[in-house]
Amino acid sequence: MNVAPKFGPAFTLESADATSLDQLSRQAEGCTRCELYKNATQIVFGEGSQKAEIMLVGEQPGDKEDIAGHPFVGPAGRLLDVCLEEAGLDRSRCYVTNAVKHFKFEPRGKRRLHSKPNAGEIQRCSWWLGAEINVVRPNLIVALGATAVYSLLGSKVKLTPERGHILTPENHPPVLVTIHPSFLLRIREKEDAARQRANFIQDLHRAVQYQGN
């Protein structure tokens, strides 16, 4: 395993004070820590068992998640479910959440197009992600994409060179770095898409192997 000497805003000492996920979710319902709450339909908090051994952290809810109020229920979420199954990892064993809890988008007619959260928005929402980590205390966190990597490990850790590696921030759960499943949906070339999908499943399988050690 590689060692990550630094860590990101979600691993700072300051986070929401809660002893259960239900309590934390209720606290988050009125969140105004950044401006994203003004246009989002609702906050989309994490879901899963408080005793989950593995935590999956994505970027932010998308259009489908914003409407439904649940994480990873859109196209990327459905693909994640399939890849988790192929990797031998039951989603029910995981706690699934995002680095940012409100949907950031640009309106284009009737459509709402995803817009990447900025550093300030990620840092402010790390208040909640850090609290989720403190409550769940997972054995392993899977960082899905660059935003999750930044929130957990800071700006000096980059996705591409660390992809597939398990990094170990001091006094915090280890973090497996991989892509966000939405990346796979954007690949047009079939052979490249198949190769990247196989690599993603291999990354997820590392989480299974880690749990077995």
UniProtKB/TrEMBL annotation:
Keyword Metal-binding: yes
Highest taxon, organism lineage: Bacteria
Designated name of the protein: Type-4 uracil-DNA glycosylase
Native source species: Rhizobium viscosum (Arthrobacter viscosus)
Pfam family, one: UDG
Organism lineage string: Bacteria, Pseudomonadati, Pseudomonadota, Alphaproteobacteria, Hyphomicrobiales
Family membership: Belongs to the uracil-DNA glycosylase (UDG) superfamily. Type 4 (UDGa) family.
Listed transmembrane segments: none
Classification via PANTHER family: TYPE-4 URACIL-DNA GLYCOSYLASE, TYPE-5 URACIL-DNA GLYCOSYLASE
RNA-binding is among the record's keywords: no
